[in-house]
Amino acid sequence: MKTDLTDTTASKINKALVLGRRAIGTPAIGMVLTLVIVTDEENAYDALKAASDAAHEHPSRTLLVIKRVSRSPRDRTRSRLDAEVRLGADAGTGETIVLRLYGDVVDHAQSVVLPLLLPDAPVVVWWPVNAPLDPAKDPLGALAQRRVTDTYACEEPIRELVARADAYAPGDTDLSWTRITPWRSMLAAALDQVDCEVQSVEVEGEEFNPSCELLAMWLADRLDVPVKRTVSTGPGLTAVRMDTDCGPVVLDRADGSLANLSIQGQPARAVALKRRETAELIAEELRRLDPDDTYASALRYGVDRLNTPAEEDPAGDGDARAVAAPAGKVAKAPAKDAAREKTPVRKAAAK
Prior knowledge:
Radius of gyration: 22 Å
Helix content: 25-40%
Largest sheet: 8 strands, mixed
Number of domains: 2
CATH class of the largest domain: Alpha Beta
Strand order of the largest sheet: 1-4-5-3-2-6-7-8
Structural class: alpha/beta
Order of helices and strands: EHEHEHEEHEEHEHHEHEEEEEHHEEH
Number of helices: 11
CATH architecture of the largest domain: 2-Layer Sandwich
């Protein structure tokens, strides 16, 4: 069921929700959170589709906020709110409200969103593109317990990571971090199978890919060993090589779907490590709404190393950027800690 409202108000939208639920025979509200998506018209369809797919796991009220900037000087000063209310089959397992803001109301989106939030339910704000530099201080971000950005969608992802670290607040997360959850789980499981000390690590992947940088920073932070970033043609992350005192541990994914795990003294095995869709990433993020301290630690660890000049790769197979721990430190891999910090409690992503 769809209801279109032109030049409307938040109270009229709430009334349309009540009337719509009665009309389709579902007066009860069974949603667990409010998901606010802030995007432009170009990316609205894909973002809403991903949220609708994620709603099968997390029934929610989805508020899609589209800020429209008029080209006419006269229309820029005229505030208007148009809404589209979707219920039942048109909204999947939850409720969807598409909000289009015009004129001065664009600068006061929080005043439109606030009356539409589910009472006593968590709020998650997601910026698929054009996220603010400081999500926690954004008027819409201030309403949320969880703020989701995506540095992969930025023109300069590495510079964006630096800004994310400088402005980090508890509750911030990024889909580039969510994309490496399977990698971190697999690497932690691999280290649990050996009783060795990790001496150095190499992370191979696309240049300027924030997921590759975050994985390198996480490994350097957790293992306290030198980590080298090597550039490949992709797609995304392609390999992680860990040198241990018992021999190499290698997780290699050349095709973006199937990886090969090699551990010294054990037969090589194929493991599923596909690049996931945005809906899976959002669904994973919604499983956990408390602050992600592991993400914060990894993000802050490598910030001062991200802009250092690329060092020459001694193997001659690509540029290498060092993300190194203090010299001389060799630590036993905290595999159980690494596995615990994400696998059962975190969420999903794609790159």
